[in-house]
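subagent[fold] <- orchestrator: predict structure for attached chain, return tokens only, no commentary.
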Amino acid sequence: MRVAKSEPKQQLAQQPHTVRKQLQKIPVWGWILGVLTVLGGLGACNASLSPSTTGAIATATTVVTPKDPDTDRITLDTVIRDEPPSLDPALATDSASIFFIRQMFVGLTGFNQDANVIPSLATNWAVSDNGLEWTFYLRDDINWVYRNPDTGKFTSLGAVTAHDVVYGVTRTLDPRTASDYAYVTYVIEGAAELNTANPQADNFEELLAGLGVSAPDDKTVVFRLKKPAAYFPSIAGMWVTFPQPRAAIEQWGDAWTEAGLIVTNGPYTLRQWDHNASIIIEKNPLWINANDVQIELFGGPIIQEASTAMAMYENNQIDMMADPGLSPPLLDIERIQADAHLSRELYIAPRLCTYYYGFINTKPPFDNPLIRKAFAAAIDRATLIKDVIKGGQRPAHSFAPPGIFGNVANDMDIGDYLIETNYADQVTQARQWLAEAGHSEGEGLAVVLRHNTSEAHAQIAQAVQTMWQEAFPRAQVTIEAQEWAKYLSTLNPDSPDKDKPNIYRLGWCADYPDANNWLNDVFNSKSGSNYARYNNPEFDALVEEAAFEADPAKRRELYRQAEDIFINQDAAIAPIFYYSYNRLYKPWLTKVVISPVIGDPIAEWRIDREAKNAARGE
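subagent[fold] -> orchestrator:
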């Protein structure tokens, strides 16, 4: 998926709001109930004394439980799969973070259900005849808002302006921000030079001033590109180009995204974030379309066990099993499909994502392409899908999946050794490659396969481990699991190889439906998401040329050549399957699913509250 900033957040202990924030962690009704409990205990004590010995009349105290203030609010209950590493648009690169950012912030453009680019903060845009200058015209009725954690009151801090967009893009690219996803904006003039500069250099201020983004007035943003890029409106819809609240960031530093400090401009804002425990977002009543937003609260506890979430779903405690939560457990898919009720709640559809195992190309023994090819070939993808995953996925032999412009998923000349009709032939070939590398049957190989904590990832890893052990009986394959934020930090390309596993699990889902978002944004040697530490100048040259090629046919051919090098020649990763959506939604929930973009718009969803309450016996 996407990497998080590796540096830890500043400790909040030094902030002046610390005591207030600690009190916020105890719900207000918890304080009231605590006081009443103490008073009730005293009353009961008095009542137990005998009037004959005290001369007093015993009285009973009735404790009245106050009504939950959120009882009448429309809530979409779910679980959250992982602790988001960051809710900062400049720093987020993983699906959990991006999901919440897209609920709380808006950028120049957005995406509809067909993944087409649509207006958002910008009402319209235009491109110059030479394709190098894009001008976006902004609406003036979207405001920055702040929610007071003590009163729950929302305050408008003024309209979002073009200057906020310029600040956001500049901050993302400023190397002092350390954005691992800034690379995707390198199409902007001066972006790469700024992002890779030394902040102490004499010309740093010139680089900041020379970045190709400007605001001629409050309602106009102009981008200057290095070369024409027809997909640029999609880049303008990515979170790293969102406007950012300068005053809040400068006041609170890294802590600005905490509940009670955060300033947002979307249909929701952050109400509660108890780290590694729970997240709740709340409807912004000052949002331009607030009257059309039905769901007032969204979120729930952070839970990594799909079996636990499944039990909650079947007990009507949560309304869905989908992003940013967990998918149904792999072991339950057949049961769900056979169940009369659950089968009607199951949503399966192709998804523009690829599940893959990456090899650390700079760490022995996977610095040898023969060993990478051997381990990639010795995975029985069809059996894995049929017997373990069971969700309508498709075996993968390329990185970019079907549905992405420039994909080669139907080109059987790419990665043909990964999808032989006879798995035994794959194993035979894999053993030959290992023998050529000096490790017959895996002799002398001790490798670590690591995945982020998840029951599903563990089951897949165990199945693949068995395949590898049977193919290479003398090899030792160890599986490790790691918490999500730590996992991403360890995989960061700048982290030392000694701390990395030999093989890692990740999935990549489209930010926009173009192969540039896959091959160039992820595995270009300059990319902050290049966890494999893959480096081939020929590959880089192809994907960089494709990024600016205007002829679609030529672009497709360039991506085909790049995938050929990436998969066939270098075997930098082992693609395993192209995803499908496997989700559960309660019948009282009407959803809007946007594919491929992460972050389905909760503001457009609806709940049949009477049906939900009836199912819960309320």
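orchestrator: received. Logging for downstream: DSSP finds 21 helices and 22 strands in the chain. The radius of gyration is 27 Å.
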